[in-house]
Structure to design on (203 residues):
């Protein structure tokens, strides 16, 4: 059962990290810039933050879901963060500052910073864990099973981001020194932010 919940956490985290978002866009950009070590440190930082966020989602599931305003505001926060990071990303491509250069070179600190500001994993894992429990696919009633499941989610995110890194690196030669390509992650984040604001205010 411990192995089963670990694998389920891993697979769903891997698949759940595929849609475009703040973190996988950043690691994709690093891969295109051939900053493999920086990107892997970034992915490690994301995986470390994923652990406590998933634990919060699973442990306080009933409290959080009993207050729809909390989940609703997390969606707004996510839209704000994606928009802000998108603007900053576009700005640093045009006019890199000393601080932005240092942050770009330190993948781990950058990953920690962006992951903490991006709590979208919480509503995702609340909904998914509730569904998996309802279907009888997981039983996380013991401490070992709970942490095996959470460890799987962390490693799944790390595996997907690492895969993105190496895939981007393979095609990087085709886009070398192309400034437009460096703008794409920021533009995608702005579009996702606009979509998040639309959902928050109109749906």
């Amino acid at each position: 059962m411990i192995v089963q919940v670990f694998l389920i956490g891993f697979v769903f985290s891997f698949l759940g990290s595929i849609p475009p978002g703040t973190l996988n866009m950043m690691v994709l950009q690093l891969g295109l810039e051939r900053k493999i070590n920086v990107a892997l440190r970034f992915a490690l930082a994301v995986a470390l933050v994923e652990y406590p966020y998933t634990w919060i989602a699973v442990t306080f599931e009933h409290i959080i879901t009993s207050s729809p305003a909390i989940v609703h505001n997390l969606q707004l926060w996510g839209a704000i963060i994606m928009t802000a990071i998108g603007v900053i990303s576009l700005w640093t491509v045009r006019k890199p500052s000393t601080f932005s250069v240092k942050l770009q070179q330190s993948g781990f600190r950058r990953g920690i910073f962006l992951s903490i500001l991006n709590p979208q994993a919480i509503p995702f894992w609340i909904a998914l864990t509730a569904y998996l429990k309802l279907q009888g696919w997981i039983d996380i009633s013991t401490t070992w099973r709970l942490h095996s499941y959470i460890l799987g989610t962390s490693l799944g995110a790390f595996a997907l981001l690492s895969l993105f890194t190496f895939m981007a690196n393979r095609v990087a030669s085709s886009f070398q020194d192309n400034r437009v390509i460096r703008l794409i992650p920021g533009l995608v984040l702005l579009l996702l932010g606009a979509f998040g604001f639309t959902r928050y205010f109109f749906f």
User: Anything to note?
Assistant: The chain has a mean pLDDT of 79. Residues 2-202 form one domain.
